[in-house]
Specification:
Layout: H1 11-17, H2 32-40, E1 47-51, E2 68-72, H3 77-84, E3 93-99, E4 107-111, E5 126-132, H4 156-166, E6 173-177, H5 183-192, E7 195-200, H6 203-215, E8 221-225, E9 241-244, H7 249-253, H8 255-261, E10 267-272, H9 275-287, E11 293-298, H10 305-309, E12 316-319, E13 322-329
């Protein structure tokens, strides 16, 4: 019924579960993974596995988190991988193709993933083994780890609190609006393995984001350059989390739309840079009857602190070293 191992990303197990157990016998065979690793003499414990055969989503908890990643492929998988690693330098990874394994004309050789298909017919059966040539980072980065315009970075402790309050889970989609240096979205990927869409209109900051995406080897992200509001309707996938760190008055006016775009049980966190923006946010959200939770994340003896506390609302407000934060969640919706 199937080739290779019926226990390795195979239709055999699905069919077997539909039939009476006492009438089914599974005869195992060598999987494409075991076959290729044996040929290359690679320790199986150093290899993560994802399948892009008939699938579009990359499992970020498995992809490039070990030294090697084995990828079960179809004819569209190379293009999907190219998009997932579009901000990588070519030498960040090494790739081996296992083409038509077990056939007389099988090929096992190193290739440049970014140059495929080349001479290969990707409609034929093939798998890929991707070697990570960089050290993975899953911790909290210091501010100096990010290229940035002066003042255009969410400070380390604020990033920690922001990401903590976003309550991120692996493989969720995060929108980072007014991304600045991209530090929040990048750290969200490093720590929580989420997919991020970045929105930034300032071209100087765009250059910094691109450098940071490359430096931190961020997978499955996309940067939209220009007015954020111009891209919202064109983003088809529903975000589970939205972080508004900037974008100006146009974005504030679209907060009700962003709220409606959230997935059920989604969360939106907003930073206000000025008291004017804070006041506008409160007005827009109250008029839209969007419920919220509020709280102070951190503060010190900044003289503006008592003033800003008068305006605590459904936003995250930064004024000096004061951070007032609130979450907007679909779970709060009537």
């Amino acid at each position: 019924m199937v080739t290779g191992s019926p226990l390795f990303y195979s239709a055999a197990t699905i069919l077997a579960q539909k039939l009476p157990k006492d009438e089914v016998t599974i005869i195992n065979n060598t999987s494409s993974k075991s076959y290729l690793l044996t040929k290359l003499m690679i320790d199986e414990t150093k290899v993560g596995v994802i399948s892009l055969h008939g699938r579009d989503k990359v499992d970020l908890t498995q992809f490039l988190n070990q030294k090697y990643t084995f990828v079960v492929c179809d004819e569209r998988s190379v293009q999907r991988l190219f998009l997932a690693m579009q901000y990588f330098e070519k030498d960040a990874i090494s790739t081996t193709i296992g083409y038509k394994l077990g056939y007389e004309d099988e090929k096992i050789e190193e290739v440049n993933l970014f140059d495929l298909p080349g001479s290969y017919d990707l409609k034929q059966p093939y798998v890929l083994l991707i070697q990570r040539n960089f050290v993975s980072n899953s911790g909290l980065n210091d501010d100096i780890e990010f290229e940035t315009e002066r003042g255009m970075i969410t400070k380390k402790y604020k990033r920690h609190l922001t990401l903590q309050n976003l309550d991120l889970e692996p493989n969720q989609l995060l929108w980072d609006i007014g991304a600045g240096s991209g530090s929040c979205g990048i750290e969200a990927y490093n720590r929580y393995k989420v997919k991020t869409l970045y929105f930034e209109k300032n071209l100087t900051r765009v250059d910094f984001i691109l450098k940071n995406l490359e430096k931190h080897h961020v997978v499955d992200s996309k940067l939209h350059v220009g007015e954020a509001c111009d891209f919202f309707e064109g983003c088809e996938e529903t975000p589970q989390r939205i972080f508004v760190g900037g974008g100006g008055e146009n974005v504030i006016e679209r907060l009700p739309y962003l709220y409606e775009r959230l997935d059920d049980n989604g969360v939106m966190l907003i930073n206000a840079i000025t008291l004017k923006n804070l006041s506008q946010m409160i007005t827009v959200l109250n008029e839209a009857k969007i419920e919220f939770q509020e709280g102070v994340l951190a503060q010190n003896k900044n003289p503006l602190a008592s003033l800003v506390n008068l305006f605590v609302g459904p936003v995250c407000c930064t004024a000096g070293n004061l951070v007032v934060a609130s979450l907007i969640g679909k779970g709060l919706k009537n």
